[in-house]
Amino acid sequence: MKRKYLSLLMGISLFAQVNLNGISSALAADAGPVKIGVLNDMSGPYADLGGKGSVLAAQMAIEDFGGSVLGKKIELVSADHQNKTDIAANIARKWYDVENVDMITDLTNSAVAIAVQGISKERKKIDLVTSTATTALTNKECSPYGVHWTYDSYSLSNGPVRALIDKNKKWFFITADYTFGQNLQSTAAKMIKDLGGQVVGEAKHPLNATDMSSQILAAQASGADVIALANAGTDTSNAVKQANEYGVTKKQKLASLLTVITDVHSMGLNNAQGLIFSEAFYWNANAGTRAWSEKFYKRHGSMPSMVQAGTYSAVMHYLKSVKAAGTANSDAVMAKMRATPVDDFAFKGAKIRADGVLDHNMYLYQVKSPSESKGPWDYYNLLATIPQGKTFQPIEESECYLVKK
Question: Could you read off the pLDDT of 94-108 as tens digits, one per residue?
Fold first, then answer.
C-alpha cells in the first residue's frame, strides 16, 4: 500500500514538473524583448555575400517594422562563426539558453547551418537560413522550426544546367571541398545526367583558396564544354579571374552555381562578362527592389546580395508572424509563418512548404559586357524567370519526415 502511495505521489510530481516546464517555456517566450540573432561569416570568404550587410538588413527590417512588437522591444545580436561548426554551435546554445534569443538567421556555411538547425530543433527555436545551399536542411535534417529561405543547391543548379545542357553535354566541376560544395556538385551532376549530359571530371579545392591554377588546368585539359563552379564568395571570384588569365573562357563556358552581385563587383565585368547563374534577387529588377536597395546602399556602400535581401525578408516575415500570433512562442509563430504567404519587395507570394523550403521564383542571369553596362552595379541581363513551383526539388522527392507521402 505504501509503495502504491509513493508511486502515485511520484507520478503526480512528474506530471506537475512536466507541466510547469511547459508553462515556464511559454512564459519565457513572452517575457522580455523579442531577440533576433544574425550568425554568419563576417571575416572570411563569405563576408561580402552576407556578413555585416546581413546584420544591417536585419536591422533595417526591425526599424521598418517599428522597433517593437506586442509592446516589447526588438533586439538584434550578431556574431562571426568563422566558418567553424563548433564555434557556431556554442554561440547558438549561449544565445538560446542564456540570452533568450528567439530566432537565428543567415547561417552562412552548410555545416554550420545543419548544426544550428539541430540545436534549434532541440530547443524549439526558429532558424531561418538565408545564405546556405545544402538541400539536407529540407531533407534528412529538416525541422518543424527551420525554413530554407533564399536558395538551395537544387534551385541554383536548375537554371544554368537546363539553359546550357542541350548544346553542352560535357561538364567538369571545380568544387569547394566541404559539405556545401559537395552537395552543390552532387545535385547539379544528377540533373546533368538526368538531362542526357555527362560529368567528365572534377577538381576540389579547400575553402578560401587563393591559387586555383591546378584546378583550372585540369578543367581546361578535360575537354568539357562547361566548367561548373560549385563554390561561392571569394573562391568563385578567384576561380573566374584565373580562368580568364588561362584563356579558358575563349573555348569553354563558365557556369557558376552560386554567384551574387558582390562577387561580380569583385571580379569586374571584364572577367565576369558572359557568366551564367541563377539568383533569387537582383537590386535593379524593378521599382520595389531598386527603392529598398538604394536605401541599403546609402548605409552599406554596396548593393545588396540576395542573401542580404533574403535576411531582411526573413526577419520581416518573422516579426509580422509574431504580431499575428500574439506571442513569440515558436510553435504559434511558425504556424502563422506557414499560413501566410511572404509578400515583400524580394519575394512575391512565396509560401513555406511542409519540408521547410520557401517556394518562390528564381531568375537566370548573364553578366553584361562592359559596353552593355549603363553604370555602377548595372551588371545583369535577365535570361529567364523560373517560376514558383518549378524552382526547387519536387516535394514528393523530399526525404523530410514532415512531408506526408
Answer: 999 999 999 999 999
* DSSP conformation letters of 218-264: HHHHTT-SEEEEE--HHHHHHHHHHHHHTTGGGTSEEEESS--HHHH
**Helices and strands, number each (H, E), in the chain:** 13, 16
CATH of domain 154-281+362-386: 3.40.50.2300
- Cβ(152)–Cβ(135) under 8 Å? yes
Q: Which residues of 154-193 are buried (b: 16+ CB within 10 A; e: fewer)?
A: bbbbbbbbbbbbeebbbbbbbbbebbbbbbbbbbbbebbe
For 293-321, the pLDDT digits (tens) are 999 999 999 999 999 999 999 999 999 99
Q: What is the pLDDT of residue 253?
A: 92
Domains 32-151+285-361 and 154-281+362-386 share a fold: yes
Helix residue ranges per DSSP H, 124-178: 153-164
Ranges in the chain, pLDDT < 70? 1-31, 405
Cα 225 to Cα 53, 167, 197: the distances in Å are: 36, 9, 10
Three-class SS of residue 20?
Answer: helix
For 261-300, what is each residue's pLDDT tens digit? 999 999 999 999 999 999 999 999 999 999 999 999 999 9
Measured distance between the N- and C-terminal CA atoms of the chain, rounded to whole angstroms: 50
Q: What is the largest CA-CA distance in the chain?
A: 92
- Which one-letter amino acid corresponds to residue 248? V
Q: In the CATH scheme, what is the homologous superfamily, with its name and number, of domain 32-151+285-361?
A: Response regulator (3.40.50.2300)
Nearest to 114 by CA among 356, 281, 310, 321: 356
Give how far the C-alpha of residue 391 lies from the chain's centroid of Cα atoms, to the nearest Å.
15
Query: How far apart, in whole angstroms, are the C-alpha atoms of residue 355 and residue 344?
Result: 22
Torsion from C-alpha of 354, 314, 146, 392, nearest 10 degrees: 50
Domain ranges of the chain: 1-26, 32-151+285-361, 154-281+362-386
pLDDT value for 20: 46
